[in-house]
Amino acid sequence: MTRRPLDLIVNADDFGISGENTAATVSLMERGRVTSATILANGEDLEPALAAARRLPGCSFGVHLNLTEGVPLTDTSDLAPLLDDDGRLHPIIFAAQITRTLRRGIEREWMAQVERIRTAGVPVSHLDSHQHVHTIPRLFLAFKSVQKKTGIRKARITKTLYDTASPPGSSLLLVKKRLWNFALRNYVRTRTTDGFSDFNSFIRASRERPLSLGTLEVMVHPGADNELGFHDEIEVLESSWEDQLPFPVRLLSYHEL
Questions:
Q1: Sorting pLDDT into bands at 50, 70 and 90, what band is 106?
Q2: Got the DSSP string for 137-199?
Q3: pLDDT in tens, 168-188
Q4: Contact status, residue 16 vs residue 22, Cβ threshold 8 Å
């Protein structure tokens, strides 16, 4: 029996974070190697990224919600616990106490990021986040509030697909991830893929065992600093990797999910 193709979304994260990222992402999209991207609304190369998004309607573009890098779009004291001495976001959110005031500031900032992309004439297909901050359990209600207010009902789940080279930390972690994904899909009804992973883990896992998934999103990071370890994934992505898999794949965007 011929296996049904795996529906695969290849999403480029951090779109607009730098000129290198924008150019590399656009090149991959124009060649059909990347089907989707999430835009960093306070990225240094935002305007060229927005211009590219407006002329690539066959790809989907979401918002890469951000709390850890760059200058925030909102000017409010509510975000003060997340800012450094220069008024820039930094990754303290992972240890910060989420007070009611801070959560209000986060919601306003995320709303401003979504509206920044929409007002530029780019239809927002889905939501995910920089450094996966939207999957922090303490921010679940803030994320859901943004979904309610914006009407965006497609979003990225937390990682579900691992390979033997980079296994999950524990079985308890997997249980927590399943619970979070269930809540994401069912509290404020949200459309998601069946699975999510990074591109290299997907390639390795597909060679190790059968994948019982109908839809999968994989993230890639075009133009990222090689020291971050993303160079190898782009080399594979630019190759004929589909021909090396033991099953067929069909590339699609979030528009088709």
A1: very high
A2: GGGHHHHHHHHHHHT--BB-------BTTB--S-HHHHHHHHHHHHHHHHTTT-B--SEEEEH
A3: 989 999 999 999 999 999 999
A4: yes
Q: Are 109 and 81 in contact (CB under 8 A)?
A: no
Q: Are 30 and 235 in contact (CB under 8 A)?
A: no
Q: Which residue has the tokens 């007002």?
A: 119
pLDDT tens column, 216-235 = 999 999 988 655 567 788 89
Q: What are phi and psi of 249, to 5 degrees?
A: -130, 155
CA distances (Å), origin 168, targets 46, 93, 160, 161: 34, 22, 9, 9
Share of the chain above pLDDT 90, in %: 91
How far is residue 102's CA from residue 96's CA, in Å, rounded to a whole number? Answer: 9
Query: Where do the domains of the chain lie, and which CATH numbers do they carry?
Result: 6-256 (3.20.20.370)
The predicted structure's pLDDT at residue 3:
74
Task: Write the CB contacts of 242 (distance below 8 Å, at least 6 apart in sequence).
Answer: 248, 249
Half-sphere exposure of 135 (CA within 13 A, CB side): 21
